[in-house]
Each structure stands twice: as structure tokens, then as C-alpha cells.
Amino acid sequence: AVQPDAVPLSHVAEKYSAKSLADFLFQPLRVRPSGRMPDMKLTPAESLAIAGYLIGDEPVPVRALDPD
Fold first, then answer.
1. Which residue has the higher pLDDT, 57 or 43?
2. Contact of 22 with 47, CB cutoff 8 Å
3. Which pTM was predicted?
């Protein structure tokens, strides 16, 4: 059920690929200079993770860092 204040996002996957949405989230004003989306200073990995979530992609496994 959709909550009263929720914005449906089902159209996002129809308009964007995970890569194109991640590019937009990473630098929104570069993609759409006249847009209203603020630059949230996301890393490329954060942008891709959020885009994947919004599109409905399966999360990409992340390899843990090996300490030196």
C-alpha cells in the first residue's frame, strides 16, 4: 500500500538505467544544469547503490578491504 505522503517511484526504472541514474545522483547539476536537485556530495559507489535500490536491481556484492 502506498502511504499518503509517499511518492511512487515505479516509473524510475522505465526512465533510467542504474548507470544513468547513478551519474545523475553523483553530479545532478552536470547532468541537468537547470535542475533543482542539490549535489549531495555522494561518492560514485554511494550513487550506484542508491540508483540500484531505486531501480530495483540486486545489490552488487562489495569485497571487504584487506588490512595491510
1. 43
2. yes
3. 0.69
